[in-house]
Design brief:
The longest helix has 21 residues. This protein folds into two domains: about 325 residues, LCP protein (Aminopeptidase); about 100 residues, 2-Layer Sandwich (Alpha-Beta Plaits), CATH 3.30.70. Strand 18, helix 9 and strand 19 form a beta-alpha-beta unit. It has ten helices and 23 strands.
């Protein structure tokens, strides 16, 4: 939880105060060593966020008997920022999940055999790089960076931003989490905030899933305060936050200050409204009622949705205004199959129609290796914008629409699902043998929408 807070705040503030380069020297770094076999890039930004419960140094007050026993994690989150940097999804992995962990190098240098174990054991036994390998093997999502923070660092960050408002549905007296507060709303300092995100049995139903939901609500409250609470325009408060954050975290060696600035500039328009929290779908683990396992096919479908997620739109050149947004239902589409694979045009037409496009015809085209989005030369003024609406729905690299259509073979009418066919250019989608697929519309499937935590979620959990 605390690492999510750290990364989001660093990303939203460094862009405006690049002169804080001296702070970079405070950051602790670890090498990014996960091997050559990794998932492909999709244009999204994926940052692993891990909370460390190390009791060394200033953290010994949270369990002096655990000193010298290394570090564990109860918090594993993946911050997924869309390719267009306009949406963020915070994916939580329950610590009690039993998963397949690949063979890894252990903290002591010995080889850890692969097998079914609790997900946080990847970090406990193999460190951050084993955790990355495990998550990438489970999700097929490439992780670009990682951030790790400990208890003391979390407290310092919350104190630096002046505390966060929480809401308790009942009184809490949890000596283990060091949280004692009456019911109702409170602005909590770092120590109390740490207790709030750590307590498990004093709030909710006592499960790790309930605690995860509370952590996600806390993060949305943090982001709302940062973006709306004046931190970005207060140099004194910002300085205190940045120095606290830099001293609190350990990051990968590739997350340089220049890289942070690049990321911060790309996400500077994100607010709490664009952040969605979701927990990986799980179900009871039959051999042990105290553990869970990923629920299938829901988890598999969810990870696929994340990999293919959101619409990517071009950024207007300086001095030029953005073209008006073309909605899917405004675009008439002719789908032609140039792959030689029987039924491909109808399959793709169905997928586009499901996303609201007014598909009007399907047919064949001469075999081609390259998928293309085309518009008529006579539609040179409006055609590119309408074609671009189709191009942004294709997976992988965005394709540039081209002028000029090909002659269809055996074109047949398609029963459009749009109530009233629109005017405007007819866009031709020619499917090549390199067909990348159609992006899903959301990183969160409809089946999980009721599990989403966002700025509108009741904070009194």
């Amino acid at each position: 939880m605390s690492v999510a807070l750290t990364f989001v705040l660093v990303a939203t503030t460094l862009a405006a105060y690049a002169y804080y380069r001296s702070i970079e020297g405070s950051l602790r770094r670890l090498p990014f060593e996960v091997g050559p076999s990794r998932p492909p890039e999709t244009g999204a930004l994926n940052v692993l966020l891990v909370g460390s419960d190390s009791r060394e140094g200033d953290n010994k007050q949270y369990g002096p008997k655990s000193q010298g026993l290394g570090e564990r994690t109860d918090t594993i989150m993946l911050l997924h920022i869309s390719p267009n940097r306009d949406k963020a999804t915070m994916i939580s992995f329950p610590r009690d999940s039993m998963v397949a962990i690949p063979e890894c190098e252990g903290r002591n240098g010995a080889t850890l055999p692969g097998g079914i174990r609790q997900i946080n054991s990847a970090f406990n036994d193999g460190g951050i790089n084993c955790t990355i390998r495990t998550l990438e093997s489970l999700t097929n999502i490439k992780i670009n960076h990682f951030v790790k923070v400990d208890f003391t660092g979390f407290k310092g960050i919350v104190d630096a931003i002046g505390g966060i408002e929480i809401c308790l549905p009942k009184p809490v007296n949890d000596p283990k989490a060091k949280l004692v507060l009456p019911a109702g709303k409170h602005v909590v300092n770092g120590e109390q905030a740490l207790g709030y995100v750590r307590t498990r049995y004093a709030l909710g139903d006592g499960s790790d899933l309930s605690r995860i939901q509370r952590q996600q609500v806390f993060l949305t409250q943090v982001l709302a305060k940062v973006t709306d609470g004046g931190l970005l325009t207060d140099p004194v408060s910002l300085n205190g936050f940045l120095r606290s954050a830099a001293a609190a975290v350990t990051v990968d060696s590739e997350l340089t200050l220049d890289r942070m600035l690049e990321i911060a500039n790309s996400v500077k328009g994100l607010t709490a409204k664009e952040l969605k929290g979701i927990t990986v779908p799980v179900e009871p683990y039959p051999p042990d009622k105290n553990r869970v396992q990923f629920s299938q096919p829901a988890a598999k479908n969810f990870f696929e949705s994340v990999r293919n997620d959101v619409e990517v739109t071009a950024t207007p050149a300086p001095g030029k205004s953005a073209a008006p947004k073309i909605e899917h239902e405004q675009v008439r589409v002719q789908v032609l199959n140039g792959t030689g694979e029987q039924g491909k045009a109808v399959q793709v037409a169905d997928e586009l129609a499901a996303q609201g496009f007014a598909v009007i015809e399907v047919g064949n085209a001469p075999t081609t290796g390259t998928t293309a989005i085309r518009y008529a030369k006579k539609d040179a003024q409006d055609g590119p914008a309408y074609a671009d609406a189709v191009a942004t729905r294709l997976s992988k690299d965005k394709r540039t629409p081209v002028a000029g259509k090909v002659k269809p073979v055996n074109a047949q009418p398609y029963a459009s699902k749009v109530a009233k066919l629109p005017d405007g250019p007819i866009i031709q989608l020619v499917i090549g043998t390199d067909w990348p697929g159609v992006r899903v519309q959301s990183a969160i499937p409809d089946s999980l929408k009721d599990k989403v935590v966002d700025a509108n979620t009741n904070p009194c959990l």
